[in-house]
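Justification of resources, computational component.

The compute hours requested in this renewal are based largely on the per-chain cost of generating structure records like the one below. Each record pairs the submitted sequence with a full structure-token output. That output is archived, and it is also reused by downstream analysis tasks.
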Amino acid sequence: MQYCNVKNTSSRFSSDSFFTMQLSDNKATERTFLWKLPASGDWEHYIKYSILAGGFFLICYYGSWWIAQQHHYRIFIPRHGGQLLPFQPAWTLVYASIMLAHTLAPFAVATRAECTAWALSLCCCVGMATMIFICFPTDQPSVEHLKQFSGPWMNLYWSTSNISTSANAFPSLHVGSMLCTVWYSTQNKPRWFKAVMYVWFLLVVYATFVLQLHYIVDGIGGAVIAVVAIRWSQKKRLIMAKKRP
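The structure output for this chain reads:
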């Protein structure tokens, strides 16, 4: 009888171990998704925080621009600071692809908590940039000399550049927000996917310079506030997790 008990216990242990390993394997498999639709009960949460991030950006970005129009105070950046690359209007497609990255971000995060943290990182990034826009407004590079160019790419370029505003050059929110989105979109993802996403980020950064919409220092500033925003949002996420029952 004792032998049978040991055998049964051993069998049960083996079954439990196998079941645990299966769960672990399934859990690991679930984390390898690239994009997925939120669960039926999570749609409202994802939409709410996506709208929060987008609305906060519009209010802060154009609000700081309006404030800058009320005075002529500007921080001077040397004209050739970062304008060493030849103008290539075809890169407008890459520059505008940031909207696709932001749109896909809610489908790339694994949980509601990550979606919240992603939105908070964007809001933090925008908030810090807005304070700099208001206190230290800097004009974007002049594009008047680009009017000599023509063609379909230029039509797209002017449509995109008209959305940008003067006095909101440093730091570059194009660089900052893209870095936040790429970082959260690549958590627990395959290495090849991370590589592709960060190459996309670097191409967007390059596009901001080659289209002469930003100086190099603007891009550096955008990356710095993005790192701060990501770290802050991660700490905020941990605090919120501890408060949950």
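Residues 42-73+84-243 form one domain. The chain has a mean pLDDT of 81.
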